[in-house]
Prior knowledge:
Blueprint: H1 8-13, E1 17-19, E2 26-29, E3 35-45, H2 50-63, E4 67-71, H3 75-84, E5 90-93, H4 99-107, E6 112-121, E7 123-127, E8 135-136, H5 138-145, E9 167-171, H6 176-186, E10 196-198, H7 201-209, E11 214-218, H8 220-224, E12 230-232, E13 234-235, H9 242-247, E14 254-262, H10 263-266, H11 269-289, H12 296-307
Parallel strand pairs: 3-4, 3-5, 8-13, 9-10, 9-11
Antiparallel strand pairs: 1-4, 2-3, 5-14, 6-14, 7-11, 7-12
Amino acid sequence: MKSWKFVMASTILGSSVLLGACGGNTAQQGNSGETQLSGSVSGDGSSTVAPILEGIVEEYAGVQPNVQVTVGVSGTGGGFEKFKQGATDFTNASRPIKEEEAKSLEEAGIDYTEFLLAYDGLTVVVSKENDWVEDLTVEDLKKLWVEDGTTKKWSDINPEWPDEEVVFYSPGSDSGTFDYFNEVILEEEDLVKSATLSEDDNVLVQGIQADPNAIGFFGFAYYAANEDTLKAVKIGGIEPTHDTIASGEYSPLSRPLFLYAKNESAQDEVVYDFLEYTLENAGEMAEAVGYVAPPEEEHDKELKELETLKQ
């Protein structure tokens, strides 16, 4: 198994990565006989997927130092918008593409291919200083997070809990994590208006760490990197762990993570090489940062799918 030089914490704390430097995409033979590439690759999208891609970009720089790879983090929705505008070669998503997004890409003349990178467990967290919340049901989450015109207090869920106002932190509306929570928990009802929203999961982490009355949610990797100061809340008695996410037992908050590649970009030698490297290593990197790798047969299927894009 590959031994990653990558340190997880550096990726979790970063919001984007820019490595290497070059002009147009070219190739030349290196001293050791391997093909050394020169060019650029651009991506954007989900902050949940970012730890995987940022780690891969860092490792790829050691293989192809003359390739510049940028990975922005504007959220799943924001990433699809840039993808539609032709500004990126790929976009990361923490949910499947929406019907309206697929239609807008078709109208823009952009053909794309979906690749599964990993599985995640959307994790509901509170501060370590919160000593009363251990387990919530889906119904509890909905009662807390749906806007109903009232001031939400912990005692609304359990009268033995503090009569203190709940402080909410949520991914922004461009986030695929927000969309997923909206679908499976809120059931398309409005999120509490008092919530602090941010596309940067590190902002959410810091806000929850500092307030015992705070609650929030984001990808499992961000919890794993901060579990000394955050507490994961069990959902229906099930704790989010590698095993419960992999088995699907952590339901309904387990979900797939994706990369969408522009088919035309994949025909470029440099972009193809980076995408191939990503698919070959995404599973191990996913495990390194706290997510769950897809089965080996899924990995083989993804690589064969990519190969069909090469010309």
